Amino acid sequence: MKKMVLPIVAATIAVGLAGAGTAHADQDSYLSDLADNDFTGSTDIALQMGYTICTDVKHGVPEATTVTAIYENTADSVTEDDAVYIYEAALIHLC
């Protein structure tokens, strides 16, 4: 079953995109990881979400807070476990 990642409200996930990503960010790997696990939707939105996760981590936002925001602001097909997966994929590939 495909999991649709819909637009998230940036304000809901803490700080937003300030200082998004580093020179070591690997956007293609992040997007491939999500696609390989049946996440669909806009690549721009997926990247925005990923970099927002990185910003949250940088600012000390608890993982549970960010994961809850992802879960509550994506399509119904995205479970809490899926939200954790998105969070971890961002950490691995973008942060």
Explain what you see.
By secondary structure, the chain is mainly α. It contains four helices and two strands. It has helices at residues 27-36, 43-58, 63-72, 80-93, and strands spanning 3-4, 39-40. Helix content is 53%, strand content 4%. It has a domain at 35-95.
Summarize it:
This protein has 95 residues and is mainly alpha-helical. It has helices at residues 27-36, 43-58, 63-72, 80-93; strands at residues 3-4, 39-40. The model is unreliable at 6-24 (pLDDT under 50).
User: Helix fraction?
Assistant: 40-55%
**Could you list the spans in which at least 5 consecutive residues all have pLDDT below 50?**
6-24
* Biggest sheet layout: 2 strands, parallel
Structural class comes to mainly alpha
What's the overall geometry?
A: globular
Classify the beta-strand content into a percent band: under 5%
Radius of gyration: 12 Å
Mean pLDDT: 81
Element pattern in H and E: EHEHHH
What distance lies between the first and last C-alpha atoms, to the nearest angstrom?
A: 28 Å
Query: How many individual β-strands?
Result: 2
Element layout with pairings:
Blueprint lengths: L2 E2 L22 H10 L2 E2 L2 H16 L4 H10 L7 H14 L2
Parallel strand pairs: 1-2
Helix pairs in contact: 1-4, 2-4, 3-4
